[in-house]
TrEMBL record:
PROSITE patterns according to UniProt: FPG_CAT (PS51068), ZF_FPG_1 (PS01242), ZF_FPG_2 (PS51066)
Annotated GO biological process: base-excision repair
Catalytic activity: Hydrolysis of DNA containing ring-opened 7-methylguanine residues, releasing 2,6-diamino-4-hydroxy-5-(N-methyl)formamidopyrimidine; 2'-deoxyribonucleotide-(2'-deoxyribose 5'-phosphate)-2'-deoxyribonucleotide-DNA = a 3'-end 2'-deoxyribonucleotide-(2,3-dehydro-2,3-deoxyribose 5'-phosphate)-DNA + a 5'-end 5'-phospho-2'-deoxyribonucleoside-DNA + H(+)
Residue ranges of domain FPG-type in the record: 247-281
Designated name of the protein: Putative DNA glycosylase
UniProtKB keywords: DNA damage, DNA repair, DNA-binding, Glycosidase, Hydrolase, Lyase, Metal-binding, Multifunctional enzyme, Zinc, Zinc-finger
GO molecular function: 8-oxo-7,8-dihydroguanine DNA N-glycosylase activity; class I DNA-(apurinic or apyrimidinic site) endonuclease activity; damaged DNA binding; zinc ion binding
Family statement drawn from the similarity comment of this UniProt entry: Belongs to the FPG family.
Organism domain of life: Bacteria
Entries under SUPFAM superfamilies matching the protein: Glucocorticoid receptor-like (DNA-binding domain), N-terminal domain of MutM-like DNA repair proteins, S13-like H2TH domain
Cofactors: Zn(2+)
Formamidopyrimidine-DNA glycosylase catalytic domain segment(s): 2-103
Length: 296
């Protein structure tokens, strides 16, 4: 799943490729991904891509009226949530043929912008279709954005501590709850907790001051380091670059790069997370989905 560093890198990439370009046409191949009807997606035609940014794990592409377009819609935003298997691909050889709705292609939406053949596809692999697209006049019109918690890189240490102490959730769950704090997903929460030497099952409100300090600094370091590593990369390389930077996530059965212990996994019905027993749980192996306590 693309998280804060990847979405920031994609936004930067789109900004460098598309800012200032006119949108010639938008094709929707999967109507189920489109979550809004007003403005219609056709309203983007003729507008200019002005900039792109990240809000939480959402990609925001801002547009302004083109020279021949109506001025009564000063801003229309194309918002994309890539979910678990979504991605964006830039091309200079897009087919001029409209996409066929309901086909087997992974392409959900295609935006033709710039010269003929230029533009980008938003794709989604797999059978579970969770990618979502909104076309709105303001990002706050999207309920899932309006209810986001503060951005994880924007909170102070004291604000971070207040969030932790105000919750009885496990720290893994709190870090990935976008309504509590926005930007972190499954992969980077594994990396953060491993670096901070904290159990995913630790209760957030029970962390002491030293643990809170460590978690705050580690969260910022892991995310900013990943963002810096991905900055300027071609979009096609971002996934592989992300994987090379991970120390525990998706490395079940491999040795921990810090202590050499075997990376373990806790599995649930639709996801899993990884951790190092020696680094994070005093050598104890965490329960799987059938249990909720440490195995003796």
């Amino acid at each position: 799943m693309p998280e804060l560093p990847e979405v920031a890198a994609i936004a930067d990439y789109v900004d460098g490729r598309a800012a200032g370009l006119p949108i010639r046409r938008v094709d929707i191949a999967s109507l189920s991904v489109l979550k809004t009807a007003d403005p219609p997606y056709s309203a983007l035609t003729g507008r200019i891509v002005s900039s792109s940014e990240r809000i939480g794990k959402y990609l925001i592409i801002h547009t302004v009226p083109g020279p021949d377009g109506p001025a009564d819609e000063p801003t229309i935003d194309l918002i994309v949530h890539l979910s678990r298997a979504g991605w964006l691909r830039w091309s200079e050889d897009l087919s001029p043929k409209p996409l066929r709705p309901g086909g087997k292609s992974p392409i959900a939406i295609r935006v033709h912008c710039g010269l003929p053949g230029e533009g980008f596809d938003v794709t989604e692999a797999g059978t579970q279709k969770r990618l979502a697209v909104w076309i709105v006049r303001d990002p706050s019109e999207v309920e899932r954005i309006a209810t986001l918690g503060p951005d994880v890189l924007a909170v102070s240490r004291d604000e971070f501590a207040a969030i932790l102490r105000g919750s009885s959730a496990r720290i893994k769950n709190l870090l990935t709850d976008q309504r509590t704090i926005a930007g972190v997903g499954n992969a980077y929460s594994d990396e953060i907790l491993h670096t901070a030497k904290l159990s995913p099952f630790a209760t957030s409100k029970n962390l002491d001051d030293a643990q809170i300090d460590s978690l705050y600094e580690t969260t910022r370091a892991v995310l900013t380091d990943a963002t810096s590593r991905l900055e300027g990369q071609e979009v096609a390389r971002l996934k592989s670059e992300k994987r090379t930077g991970l120390r525990v996530h998706a490395r079940t059965g491999l040795p921990c790069p810090v202590c050499g212990d075997t990376i373990r996994e806790v599995s649930f019905s639709d996801r899993s997370f990884q951790y190092c027993p020696t680094c994070q749980t005093d050598g104890k192996v965490l329960a799987d989905r059938r249990m909720s306590r440490l195995l003796k």
